[in-house]
Prior knowledge:
By secondary structure, this protein is α/β, with parallel strands linked by helices. It has helices spanning 2-16, 49-64, 137-162; strands at 32-35, 39-40, 68-69, 76-92, 98-113, 121-132.
Amino acid sequence: MKKIVAISILFLTLMSCKTQYSMIDGSIDASTFSVDIFEEQASNAPAGYGATFSNFLKDFVISRTKLNLSIDRPDIEISGKISQYNTTPVSVQSDEVAALNRLTVVIFVSVINNKDEKQSFESTFAQFSDYDAGQDLSSVETALLEDINSKLSQDIINKLTSNW
């Protein structure tokens, strides 16, 4: 009899515990989003990079959150501009030749939350990726931008979902 009571209590305890996992923080009360094409203000950014980043961000948000893309009155509107796109040497060897170069992208992002204005924000994000100085930027730029776009998109989602 004690075993049955103990098992019943254990069963009821386990059944009453409920853990819910979601891909996006529960602090956002939204189901739809839109991303405008990011304006290219950095003169040395590749042509069309604003549109490329915008499309990357859309796919990133769709794949990592519960939000659905919407053109008609979205809950969250994301827009921005590419403000800097620079390459600089970061590791100089003894003969004063760079061993590594760094591609840095800085973006300004504006997020309007139409369901909760307090969660709207404007912020600047910067990310970089290093590459061997012996390589031509044009030969590695696609891979570098894939890495940078991923980091920037994650920064945007983190800010969007954590309210920091």
